[in-house]
Each structure stands twice: as structure tokens, then as C-alpha cells.
Amino acid sequence: MNPVESEAAFLARYDPADYARPAIAVDLVLLGLSGGRPAILLLKRDRHPHAGRYALPGGFVGIDEPLDAAAGRVLREKAGDAPAHLEQLYTFGAVERDPRMRIVTVAYLALLTEAAFAEALARAPALQPGTVAASSIDGPVTVHALHGEALALAFDHAEIVAVALRRLRGKLDYSEVGFALLPELFTLRQLQDVHEAILGTRLNKPAFRRRMLDRGWLEPTGRFETGTSYRPAELYRPARNPSPTASTNSSPNSSQGD
What we know:
disordered C terminus, alpha+beta
């Protein structure tokens, strides 16, 4: 280092080619629920590497493009800009994760309501839905087509899906992230269905409802569901001003049964 050299002079002679540079990509875990299970949206690769396998929608980050902007662009281009709760998940940078070159990917979790999930499929017919058992996410997951067969995933995308589900499971009990999988107005039964699908287990109904109401995260609307053949349930929405003193004891996730 030359102590008398100005920063401007240093930058003028600096050559980025002196260092090898990995490519940066973003991949989206487009996640909703189907048949009481977590479901994701995939694309079948039509070119090498891993031609014929299924991959998360993704793409390379432009040299002047912020990461969040790249994720938003991929959502628009490959999922028809379906409305989604988008948050950065994790960075995957294993040296040999892609046989072409050194590619580091930043994965994003994109949560879709049932309506948004259907909207994405309608806007982007190339997308293939697949379900995964929430109870099998300790390692890379197996994703199944809706009619049952296992789908071979490209690259390390089975690991990315597993990390996404573990993250979602971990946040479910201390954050309001589960609301992103629900319509604007929902019943307590629908809320419990979301928790059970992500956790992969049945929950005690009275304990779960008491827990959810005690947290101060829910706001009753005074309205009731329609078109049911049974007694309609009250509709709730996320509280506009959630209680800062939500209870953290006796998680409902520890009780089994209905």
C-alpha cells in the first residue's frame, strides 16, 4: 500500500480481472399449500446441465442489479408476477453446486396464498406444481408431482427447498409469516390447517386457538364464512396493531390430536 496514493488513483489503476469472480444467481422457492401439504412451483429444464430435471425458477443477477430487484424480475418473468410475500432465505455457495462454473445463488422464499398459487399456474403454464412432506425436511427433500411420481430436482435445489421449509417451520411459532399463506380473511380452522401443513403434524384444536387468540395477532371481523353446509365460522384478519406482549409459553405444537 502506498500511503501517499489517493483513493481515486488507486481505483483508477485497479484491475478487477486480477481476481476470479463467481457468477451470482437468485432462485425462488415459490411455496403454497396443496391438499394439506406444502407445495412448490418448478420449471422443467430443457437444456444442459440437468436437462429433463426440475428446477426452482431462477436467473443470473445483472452486474448493476440489486439482489431484491433480481428476485422481483424472476418472479415477473417466470411466475407471471403472481402476488407473493418475498423474503431472502439463504446463500448457497458450494464450489461444485453447478457443473458449468462457480455460481453462488441467493435463494428467496416466496409465499403464495391458494389464489396466488393458482394465478401463477395460470399466468405461467410452464410451471409444474409439486408437493413435499413437511415431516421429511431434515435433509434434501423429495418432491412429488400431484399425481404421485417423484420429481428429480436439478443442482442443489432439493437442499434449498428443505432449508426453505425449515426456515418457515422455525418462524411459524414466533412470527406472523403464516398469514402470507392465507387469504385476507380466514377462519381459525384455515389458520390451523396452515400450521399443520408446515409442521407436518396434527395440533390440539382448543390449545391452538387459545394460543393464537392470546397472542394478539388476530382481529375478529364480525363476519362469517358463507356457502357452508355447517355452522359458519367467524372470519379473522391479521391485527393492524399486534400486541407486543404476546404469550410465549405452552406452544400449541406440543399437543397432538384434534
